[in-house]
Amino acid sequence: MATKKYSDSFSFLPQGGIIQDFKVGGTNIVLGFPSAESYNTKHSPFFGETIGRVANRISGAKINSLNGKSYPLAVNNGPNTLHGGVKGWGKVDFEGPKDVERNGKEAVLFTYLSKDGDEGFPGTVEFKLWYTPSVEKDASGIEKTSLEIEYEVELVGDEVEETVVAVTNHSYFNISGGPTLEGTQTTMETNLHQVVDDDAIPTGAIEPYPEFEAKKEFTLGAETPKPDHCFVVNTDPSSVPLDTRSQSLQKLCSFYHPNTKLHLEALSTEPAFQFYTGKFIDVPEMDGLPARGPRSGMCIEASRYVDAVNIDKYKSMVLLKKGQVWGSRTVYRAWKD
User: Measured in Å, how far apart are the chain's first and last C-alpha atoms?
Assistant: First the structure.
């Protein structure tokens, strides 16, 4: 695969299937470190990681009802569980990368066996991650660099009859060419979001986000807007299949920066996505790179609804039983004028 043009654009790490490089026009548009070791320190705010077994927050650090009982989880974000626990899947080594063919294209496969009791979650699950990178010209001749991410999870152990799964990627993007996101022109396909309480747990309401409108361009400033919320693409939770891969890819959001002439868009089969403009980033100067601070990158985390495991009307989208498959697809695509 080293002879392929896209190999100059992407690099991945066994730890958490991290996306280390996503280069467009010679610019790496994801935050990270040049050395693999730096990703496994307290200074990395999930840079590029695969987040599992359950992404985002679980209220009260507990699964309230599963297999006829409750399950206590790690308390690592106020009173809640965040991104699968203390290590989650982002700070463990996957098997891979392995060069494979997927849907007629060359791809990279990572796998991970998450055992019963991993971070408190019940049941042994097998996780598969395919990255399908490409550098292709579109109909108008513009060369676009894309990365399709495909996830698949099965409950393979006999310990329990059901578990919960919600996997995403936590890459931080910056197309500004500068130390912050300032000046990035942004369009969100939806502004409906899960309203949250002071602990960032959904209240149950889904309402328009007040800082911007849907499908109307706005610019990220030095300090605002500063979302860290789950935006909802599909407002009918009962229609969300456990495996969304057969669904059509829907555009989530798009970005452009006039200084670099770089474009970025995200598409997914998932019903929602966390949009986070990095207000808590605090990475010191290290590994030969300058310090990274607030708003130095943004995350577009395609996902299920937040805290779906503890909300009955949302639970079906994360509840994985024996014989079932959980799956999703997401595409990040970028190009330069």
Answer: 27
Mean pLDDT of the residues in the chain: 96
Q: Would you state the structure tokens that stand for residue 305, as one six-digit string?
A: 């609804």
What does the DSSP 8-state code read for residue 94?
P
For the chain, what is the largest distance between any 2 Cα atoms, rounded to a whole number of angstroms?
A: 56
Tell me if 258 sits within 8 A of 185, measured CB to CB: yes
> DSSP letter at 166?
B
- What are 265's strand-pairing partners? 254, 333
Helix (H, G, I), strand (E, B) or coil at 252: strand
Nearest to 106 by CA among 248, 250, 243, 2: 2
Q: Are strands 228-232 and 185-188 parallel, antiparallel or unpaired?
A: unpaired
Integer-rounded Cα Rg, in Å, for the chain is: 19
Contact 67, 162 (CB under 8 A): yes
Catalytic residue among 43, 83, 170, 193: 170
Residues 6 or more apart whose CB falls under 8 angstroms from that of 185 comprise 217, 218, 219, 255, 256, 257, 258
DSSP H or E stretch at residue 80: none
Taking only the tens place, the pLDDT of each residue in 107-132 is: 999 999 999 999 999 999 999 999 99
Q: How far is CA 215 from the centre of its chain?
A: 22
* Burial class of residue 51, CB neighbours in 10 A (0-12, 13-18, 19+): buried
HSE (CB half, 13 Å, CA atoms) of 248? 4
170 is catalytic: yes
Phi and psi at 113, nearest 5°, equal -105, 110
Q: Is the pLDDT of residue 4 over 60?
A: no
- What are 335's two structure tokens? 């190009």
5 has pLDDT over 80: no
Distance, CA of 74 to CA of 276 (rounded, Å) = 23
Quote helix, strand, coil % in the chain, to nearest 5.
5, 45, 45
